[in-house]
Prior knowledge:
The chain is an alpha/beta fold. The chain has a domain at 65-184: Rossmann fold, CATH 3.40.50.620. It has eight helices and five strands. It has helices at residues 10-14, 18-52, 75-86, 104-110, 115-118, 131-145, 159-169, 194-215, and strands at residues 65-71, 90-96, 122-125, 149-155, 174-180. Helix 3 links the parallel strand 1 and strand 2 (90-96).
Amino acid sequence: MTPPWAPLSQAEAAAPPPAAAGARLWQRLRRLTSLGAALGVLWVGGLLTFAANIPRAPEDATAATDAIVVLTGGSERLETGFDLLAAGRGRKLFISGVYRGVDVRALLRMSQATPAALECCVVLGYSADDTVGNAAETARWMQAEGYHSLRLVTANYHMPRSLVEFRHALPDVRIVPHAVQPPNVRLDGWWHWRGTAGLIVSEYDKYLVAFLRHALGL
């Protein structure tokens, strides 16, 4: 048994007293809490900015482009794409993210478009499973066609993230956003609507991931 008057070992002498160790732990917790609070404020501020900048209407609706590109995910998008093609806003319509087995005639029937008038100018892409895939698939098709401009048709809440991915995949292509307004997405007072609020928060988080991934070169 070590007598109480025995000198302290080197490790014991170097160890901080319990009160000092507790103070340091408390300081670290305070710093982490402050950092978390600051990140939370930034996240909320970014969310509000993101929601405020979701497009409420198509941009430059009358400009013609080489192609019209529709990202699947809602009937309004297809109908808008076919209407734009019929109005001569592009030479061809490319629909990205189509399920295997679905053909042009089936999509035209779904959108109540006239097959004879549009079937020749509609191209389907089957390889995309997400927005990153949509951009990559469209880039390959645009290069094969020799096109240099496109009108991008997707839902308004999906447009910011789509532009991040498309501008990265097609840096030399002019992209005209054409946001579609889904009737069940209520942008005015969106925080009052649980479905819309959840959709916007989810899309904002995905947008942040996409933006940071490209900003960091990942």
